[in-house]
Amino acid sequence: MSTGRRSGTIKQIVVRRCLPPLPARARRRYFIAAARRVLRSACVAVVGCSLCEQAHALDFFGLFGSDDPPPVSATTLSYRLEIEAKTPEGKNDSDAEQALRDAASTYRLRQEPPPDGDGLARRLQADINPLLDALWGLGRYNAQIDVTIDGVPISLDETGLAAAAHRADSFRNRTVVPVKVIARLGPLFKLRAVDVDYPRDQAPQGLPRRAFALKSGDPAISADLRAAQVKLVDWFRSNGHPLAKVADVKATVDHGAAAMDFRLRVEAGSKAGIGAVMISGGDVDPRVVATHVYLREGEPYSPERLALAKTSIAKIPAIGGIRVREAEKLDANGNLPVFIDLTERPRHAVGLSAKYSTVDGPGIAGYYEDRNIFGGGERLRLEASASLLQRIDGTSFTGFNNLSGSDFGARFTGTFIKPGLFGTANDLLIEATAFRERVGNNDLGGYTDDTVRGTFGVIHRFSEAASLQAGLQVEQSKSQDVLGRVDATLIGFTATGRYDTTDNPLDPTRGVRLSATVNAYPKLMGSTIDLFEARVAGSAYYALDEQADYVLAGRLAAGSLAGAPLDQIPDAHRFFAGGGGSVRGYGFNTISPMMFGQITGGRGLIEGSAEVRVRITPTIGLVPFFDFGTASRSSLPGFDDYVGYGAGLGLRYLTPVGPIRLDVATPLNPRPGDSRYAIYVSIGQAF
After folding, report:
1. Helix, strand or coil for residue 562?
2. In the chain, which end has fewer C-beta atoms inside a 10 angstrom radius, N or C?
3. What does DSSP assign to residue 229?
4. Strand partners, 341
């Protein structure tokens, strides 16, 4: 049966979610295919063909998805669905075919066959309108669809439907039912007239292209029309018109001319400022929450400022849900009141995580957190972690009976934060940590370090993005390496400035992160040595498309030590590079100047990374990356000592909590003792 819909005037085009611009879909399919080839090849190379076939059957991460129907059964009707979309020139349109698959429940449920022919026929019948909607979304308003079961058309009347159901039942317990969906697309409709009625005093020179990009001759794709309306309203809102809206929209389709006339009217409303901010809900004292809101009554209205306020409040661990509502009308002063509704998170939380690296070994970590001790958002967090350490004394593991207590590293940290100290934008910080670590390997040497450290400070928040932490730090450490043993007491001042405009802490796609730390431990305060540290780091994230499916990410860091000679500085304060958060492919902290064939750490540091983060499905991403890093003998960072270069490919499994990271990296200029490759598994992006 040939099915199509014709209409003269469409009052409102309703766009169904699933129709990104055509080039993006084509690019995404290319990367999906590439990912499949890479993963299959890797699977065959690493674990063999039989296991690869099992992964294919289990639809590993959705990348090996198969169209093979379930086995023939006496209780169900398995079917094989074939979808074709033909242009007027007779060519297959792969983008339209993918849109039909996305819209068809018959395709999505292909691994769940119905019990009989009537169920299959009605499943296909229910798909007809969604399939046509999908083609309308691609600008194919003259499209017609033929849906058949073994050549028998699916009809909208009961008699025809019964014939198709009977034909499907004839395949029971014999073979799969052949089902076809053939779409004759017709011409791609173009916009003929595009008319936007808006207040001319708001844009006397005309609307900028970033506000409204549609023009005569563009494809009449309904997803683009809907997006254009949203962008136009957003443009007026970002220019201080909070009540802007599309008052009327009309799309008239001329089927004979394969054209559409598109008209819309925008009501901008008055320019306004931000009005009174009212906070309600949750168990955290609203006065504490207010210290995280930097909106000022009367300042120009800005959606970006409201989004930043939400981000700032979210930094209070006790706050779970945050809803920012805008009043429907302006107040007597011409400002727009803002309402912030809060819901609290569970007060107590515990967590457990694990990580693994082929060069650094396994590790586990756990924490307990009380997020609202006294009702003011006070947080107490206790953390503990343990890891299996690499040996650096020339021996190796031979089994569990060969393990000793010195083969395990551990870290214990307790942190207390009191936000909104005395109703100001200052947070009290008290932190204590103790750790034991051993870094290196038998070929490159390394160090052991036992440290206890305490910090007492205040964090001042200048804005949603900028803060400064300053305070007093006390440390006692014992470390041992090729240069000898160092027992040190450090007492001094510490200060760290941060600036963060990123949109997601675990998976940023836009914005920058900057940090600078200065520590001063002079002898006159009781330190056993004079030590002065400085470190700066920055990372930037740039999304190439609106959906952030393609993100460029880069990171640079540098550091310098001054004061005591290197052999008197505890190893935990010297500079090293290498590891999953530094130069991937190398062991943790194994890039360093060397003496007597063993790493010693340096007084200067330079390191950086570059990544291309590509989302190929809603849950899968691929990340090619390049890292470099060096630690130098001089306090002035430079490239006079060994520079390690690493490159590789990462796989990301994207979850609502954050991405699960699997990186495979190799040193590009390895030294004797470096592994040929390294695998890292953890939660969150590398930086």
Report:
1. strand
2. N
3. H
4. 280, 323
3-class DSSP assignment, residue 126: helix
pLDDT, tens only, 299-339: 999 999 999 999 999 999 999 999 999 999 999 999 999 99
* 610: number of Cβ within 10 Å: 15
* 197 phi/psi in degrees, rounded to 5: -100, 115
Indicate the pairing of strand 511-521 with strand 594-595: unpaired
Residue 5: which residues within 8 A CB-CB, separation 6 or more?
A: 132
The per-residue pLDDT for 6 is 40
- Alpha-carbon distance of 265 to 302, in angstroms, equals 22
Q: Report how far residue 538's alpha carbon sits from residue 556's, in angstroms, rounded to the nearest whole number.
A: 5
What per-residue confidence (pLDDT) applies to 67? 67
Mean pLDDT of 280-299: 93
Q: Is 515 helix (H, G, I), strand (E, B) or coil?
A: strand
For residue 642, give the nearest of 564, 576, 572, 553 by alpha carbon.
576
The one-letter amino acid code at 192 reads R
If phi > 0 it is left, if psi is from -120 to 50 it is alpha, else beta; for residue 282 that is: left
CB atoms within 10 A of CB 593: 22
Nearest to 435 by CA among 453, 454, 419: 453
What's the mean pLDDT when you consider all of the chain?
88
Model pLDDT for residues 109-121, shown as the tens digit of each residue: 999 999 999 999 9
d(CA 24, CA 265): 29
- Select from 544, 540, 542 the least CA-distant residue to 554: 540
Beta carbons within 10 angstroms of residue 220's beta carbon: 26
User: What token pair was written down for 434?
Assistant: 């103790």
Q: Tens of pLDDT along 663-673?
A: 999 999 999 98
**Side-chain half-sphere CA neighbours of 200 within 13 A:** 2
- Could you give the C-alpha distances from 7 to 10, 139, 579, in angstroms and in order? 7, 14, 62
Burial of 210 (0-12, 13-18, 19+ CB in 10 A): exposed
pTM above 0.70, yes or no: yes
Residue 628 bridge partners (DSSP): 608, 645
Find the mean pLDDT for residues 374-396: 90
Please give the Cα distance from 15 to 137 (Å, whole number).
7
* Residue in the block written with tokens 């129907």: 69
Share of the chain above pLDDT 70, in %: 90
Sheet holding 273-280, edge to edge: 273-280, 335-344, 319-326
Distances (CA, A) of 89 to 1, 86, 183, 380: 21, 8, 13, 68
Write the CA distances from 157 to 6, 57, 160, 322, integer angstroms.
Answer: 19, 39, 6, 50
pLDDT at site 20: 35
Residue 359: pLDDT band (50, 70, 90) is confident
Q: With beta carbons less than 8 A apart as the criterion, state whether 185 and 140 touch.
A: yes
Separation of alpha carbons 154 and 129, rounded Å: 13
